[in-house]
Amino acid sequence: MKVKHTNTAMIILAAGESNRMGAIKQNLPWKNTTLLGHVIEQGTASKIDEVFVVVGANAKSVINKISGYDITIIRNGNWQNGMGTSIAYAIQNFYEKSLHFDAVIIALSDQPLIDSKHYNMLIDSIFKNNKTIISTQINNRAGVPAMFASKHFNALSKLDKDYGARKILGSNSEEILSLNIGDNTIDIDTMDTYASLYEKYGKE
To answer: In degrees rounded to 5, what are phi and psi of residue 81?
Structure first.
């Protein structure tokens, strides 16, 4: 029997400078919003209870574009040291504000083909399988978006540098169930990739 989820948070990592893009990647148009806005909309449309967005580089501009969403924004003043610090800042924010979640989904702001159905699959899977981490399979490896049960929060809160959640995934392989969703995991690292995906999927 599937155990109904009770309290799931989502942390969207959006603090990077995206200097290879020549533009603020988070703010690039996607459908009726932006790349980051689209990820927020997919998260809020799912079974996720609360969405947190970690910003850093270009914070003022990024925040301005997402000000209309019902989310919590966390500023990572140490964003130059990588995604790991953004995850740690968010989890530490939970502790500081006495926020209690059964699990957290770590997501990126540049994977626009991942939709609310996939986030729901992560949630459903962690509560009906004897696993504490549900990841997304990328190139035959465990990747993000990934969902972590609360037992991993302490480890997540201590991440640093540019390892993101990979450090936790790599050291807990026996506790991971990885879901394969094909090519929808592609992330946007160049303007060419963005232009190609936008032409196919990103127009209103």
So the answer is: -90, 5
